Amino acid sequence: MEKMKKNNQVSLEEMENQRQFIWQIRAKNEKAALESGSRPKAYILTLGCQQNEADSEKLSGMAEAMGYEITQAPEQSSLIMVNTCAIREHAEKRALSMIGQFKHLKANNPDLVIGVCGCMVVQEHRIQDIKRRYSYVDLLFGTASIHRFPELLWKKFQAGKRVLCSEEEEYLVAEGVPVRRENKLRAWVSVMYGCNNFCSYCIVPYVRGRERSRIKEAILEEVKQLVAEGYKDITLLGQNVNSYGKDLGESYDFADLLAEIDEIPGEYWIHFMTSHPKDATRKLIDVMASSQHIARHFHLPMQSGSDRVLNAMNRRYTFEKYIGILDYIREKMPDAVITSDIIVGFPGETEEEFEETLAALRRARFDMIFSFIYSPRKGTPAAELYCQIAPNEQSRRYDALLMTQNEISLASNECLEGKTLRVLCDGPSKNREEVYSGRTEGGKIVFFEGKPEHIGEFLEIDIERGDTFALYGRIKNISEG
Ligand code: SAH
Ligand code: SF4
Ligand code: F3S
């Protein structure tokens, strides 16, 4: 058992090795700072999902440890990292266009190091693209090598030429990488990495490797630490958190992990994403229902309401099984917020099958959905299907889907009018200073009149109005004085 636990981890020696590279670059940067009077700056651009945001917080953590000041201004930086996503064509186009935009910065500052990492550059054809067409990219590595960032950067400085790390790296769990968190209230904690599901449309298993779980002790320690530091909303991350622990060869599962985290004393919420419906157990729902800290929010991607399409997607559940889970969640937690992901225009999706998805939305009554137009991903089975749907038809279905869901979202938010909800206050909204925003346990955004002392606090808000995308209210019983 002990052997299995250690097997999926990057060795302590390897992590120590990386710390040595951190110190070497730090010394170089401190010397440069003494000469120029200011610390070199690093800009890290993140595209993609929460997993990538979490990875970028590690890149920033390592960059900071290496003596860089993290900045939002690429034009002032000595190091630019683009952490890419490959989930849809649009994400890749955006990454390539951003990389393109940084080219002129290099012309002004030949010492600038431009690095590209993340999911897009795990794919061989993209590695070749960068090699051939983006000659000014100095550093390239995939998702398995994030913890080797200091070593690869050092190599770049030493060699004075491009370091394109495209060798097959083993996908492991790296503990002890420095993290620089973007937000003081809300934090990500990865519980597992990778995916074994191979949904037929999805690139993730090809660019993130097989499932590997962190040991529970490391997760519990990180959550304890975050609660002690005052974090109020902690999201446990994984492509399919419900398979947590399976690879560790123990009977301890995700529900057990949630139950143990819930015992950590403090005032905080635990969220998690994403759950795959095929693995969502009653045990998990029961643990949530009886917990103190686990937010009553389920993000449970349905993808389609048609059994034929679900099968072609290799999702391994039927709509009936899916709706059974929703019914059980609502039986145990009537106020639970349920959100979902839907793909329209999957190859071969007929008008009738699309209508089944619309009907499924009406039956499921999600609070909110993320909807996507199917995008063929090179190397996935669905991309090889000959019955691709025309883009204009995909768009029409997408619009119809949104119209149907908007009505449902509006009704679900209107239902909350007159209720009092607990809201974690983020701070002033972008457009109007006196209007503050926060989020409910279910992740719904709420606007209300707030004050600076409310930031980071849990508030009771009387909801006065709900529209399709947000709730509006006022703080209950503000104590005067
Ligand atoms: N692991 C999560 C999802 C990660 S990707 C899960 O299984 O639920 C987030 C969402 O992107 C997916 O739920 C899916 O709806 C969408 N998606 C993935 N691949 C896609 C593709 N090729 N085209 C369009 N949408 C896609
Ligand atoms: Fe992609 Fe499916 Fe894995 Fe989610 S479960 S990451 S959709 S392959
Ligand atoms: Fe996430 Fe995009 Fe990679 S969605 S896992 S960053 S392909």
Structure in words:
The protein has 481 residues and is α/β, with parallel strands linked by helices. The protein has 3 domains: 12-164, Methylthiotransferase, N-terminal domain (Rossmann fold); 186-414, pyruvate-formate lyase- activating enzyme (Alpha-Beta Horseshoe), CATH 3.80.30.20; 420-480, Nucleic acid-binding proteins (OB fold (Dihydrolipoamide Acetyltransferase, E2P), Beta Barrel). The chain contains 15 helices and 19 strands. The chain has helices spanning 2-7, 12-36, 50-65, 89-101, 103-108, 124-133, 149-159, 204-208, 216-228, 254-262, 282-289, 307-312, 319-332, 351-364, 391-414; strands spanning 41-46, 69-70, 79-84, 113-118, 139-141, 163-165, 186-190, 192-193, 212-213, 233-237, 269-273, 297-299, 337-344, 368-373, 420-428, 435-440, 445-449, 458-466, 471-475. Strands 2-1-3-4-5-6 form a 6-stranded parallel sheet, with helices on both faces. Strand 16 and strand 17 (445-449) form a beta hairpin. The model is unreliable at 1-6 (pLDDT under 50). The chain binds S-adenosyl-L-homocysteine, iron/sulfur cluster (SF4) and FE3-S4 cluster. S-adenosyl-L-homocysteine binds next to strand 13.
